[in-house]
Each structure stands twice: as structure tokens, then as C-alpha cells.
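W.,

You were right to be curious about this one. When I first looked at the sequence I had no strong expectations either way, so I just let the prediction run and decided to look at it fresh. Below is the sequence, 362 residues in total, followed by the output.
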Amino acid sequence: MIHIIIGTRAQIIKMAPVMKELESRKIDYNFIFLAQHKETMYEIMTQFGIKKPNIVIGDMGKDITNVKDMIFWSFRILIYSFLKSKIIFRNDREGVVLIHGDAPPLFLGALMAKRQGLKVAQVEAGLRSHNYLKPFPEELTRVLSAKIGLIDIFFCQDEKAVSNIVHFNKTAYCTRYNTILDSLRLAEKLNPTTKHAETNDKFAIVSLHRFETIFKKENLEKVVTEIQKISKKLKLFFILHPSTRVSLKENSLYGDLNENPKCVLLPRQGFFEFNNLLGKAEFLITDGGSNQEECFYLGIPCLLFRSETERSEGIGENVVVSNFDPVIIEDFVHYYESYRRKPVSESFSPSNFIVNQLEKFN
């Protein structure tokens, strides 16, 4: 049997096309939801038209956003899975557990699967920055789960990612693209409108949420300084993740941004709504790897507020790594149109490819 473990918004967004492909082929799968994220998760499932979870573990009624809650949530999941492993996996010992990316549910899900004696397949495998602290803890999660033998099948989005895990001598596939390409195709079909996208003004989007950006005051102050400078040249929609909003307020940086009429602070957007807005933006400023991929597939100029990235999508084309350097940032803002590219028009579906390899476990 095929089991799918998901716990975060990014995971459900990127795995939804795989789940829809399974459902279109009438392949039954066991959907296990580790509720690291709670806010908007069920709305996302409804938007993509995928089934609700077969079992929910670790639901604390809110998003897990701080270290204390993360520790408690993790132990809660591990204890429950230790006691109820057979129930969680329907007494299956011959199937495969599909996990995704680099968030904590990847590691927890792999541990759960191994206890039950199941194979583990990782989607979005093999990405490496070769710096354990950037991004943290994502890089550590990826490397550790592979090194201690938790992963049996690697689904890598490009040949560079394949080369990063080939020495483990495990089954590895190149899916050619990230599954978010299929997610974007689904979003384009539904194309929900947002009132902010209806403006006639040119605008750019800011979306920042990574640990190393928002929880280091020095970095956050640098970022806010640059955002204020950019807003003098172009209207900005700054989409605030809950943790970003909290950090800005704790560091007394929220007030000045909120009072800037050229920097409009918006709550976190749904995937479909965000991409409707992104499609009309001049460029995106972000520290997110998934956002980097979205911009590459859509051909939209992207300025990464990071010093390095584990992803190759768009590098040297429409994506610029800022290294928090004011000169690089100013140059990008001035010449951003030169970074615009045509959207990826390839019809190949990475989700379809993944399901083709998993059918034998049905």
C-alpha cells in the first residue's frame, strides 16, 4: 500500500498533484496528517480537491512555530506512533511511505515508517546547500535522514540533486522538475482573483519567513532597511507569515513598516491567491526555496534574501542571490526587467512520473 505523510503547508501544496494523480488512477492511499501546520491546511486540501486525512496525529489546534511547542509536538507524535503503529499504517508491512522535503514531518514520518518495517520514499530529495546552518534546520534534516539510512527511494528534481545522494547506493530517480510545477498548473486552471491583484499600480511582493532571516535581529534589521529603500521606488505588498509578524513586533520594526503607505502589509495568502498576485507582480523578494522555484517556472524576476541556496532553479537566469549586499539589491531593483524569462512550457509532469514508479506498491 502507499502511505503519504504530510505536516506543513509547503508539503501539502507540493504533494497535492501526486495525490490527485493517485486518485485519478483510483489508487487507494493512506493519508497521514502530522499537524505541524493547522491554519488553512484543510482549505488547501479543498482547493486542490484532494481527500481529507485518514488519520491526524499531533494536532495542537494551532501552527507549531516555536521550539518549545516543536519539542512537545514531536514527542507526542513519536509516542503515539510507537503505541499505535499498526493502526496508523493499517497493519501494512510491504508498502511504501511517501514523505516530502526537509520539514520536521519528513524525519518523524521516516522514523514512523521504519518502525513499521516499511520502505520510505522522499520527494524533493537530494537538495544540498552544504552548510548545516543555512538553511537551518532544513539542511540538517535532509542530510541526517539520508545518512542514517531512513530513505530507501530518492525522487530528485534534477541531476545535481541525484549526484548529491548517489553515494548512498539507494534507488534514485530524476523527476526533472519539482512537483510544484504541477501545483502551479492546477492554480492556473482555477485562477482565483484577489482584490490586491486588481490594482493598476506596478508592485512587487515581499515574502520572508526563514529562521535565519527573522530570528536574527541583525539580519531582520538589514532586511527591513532594504525593504524601506525599495518601497521608495515601487509599491510593495509585504506578505506576513505569523512568525514574521511576531518577530517584527518584538524587534520594534513593525510600526515603521505599517506606517509606510508604499509598503502594504498583508496576512499570509493561500497558495492559489498568492500565485494570482505573483503573476501580476514586477518581481518577488523572498527567502523561500519554494518561492524561488515558483518564480523560475513562471519566469518572474526573483531576489533571494539569502547568502546561499540549495536549489539551482533560476540561478544565473531570473533569480539573484542578494547575499544581503545593498549593491546587489539596488542593481536588481534597477534592472529587474532584464531578469524576466518565459514561463516553463514543458508538458512533462513530475507527479505523473512519481506515481508511475509507485504503482508497484499498490
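Here's what jumped out at me. Residues 136 and 185 are 30 Å apart (CA to CA). And, maybe more interesting for your project: The chain has two domains: 2-177+348-361, 193-339.

Coffee later to discuss?

I.
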